Task: structure prediction
Amino acid sequence: MRTGRPKVELTLGPEERSQLESYARSLSLPAALSAQARIILSSADGELNSAIAERLKLTQGTVSKWSTRFIERHIPDLYDYVD
Result:
């Protein structure tokens, strides 16, 4: 049985998925943006935040933060948060 707050469903359109897959594979974009794309793609595929965090060696808070920001703001705003 799962505990904690229910996960908000993250869905991607075909264009968003394609763009995020490109970001995730890119060697020329900042690593943070590639990681964010991997988080969002995994979340959209239904993977649990804890599993995403473990696989990508991130904290659950980081995974949750980027999933939530994407749900609220989508792709254009990902660039605003890359340091």
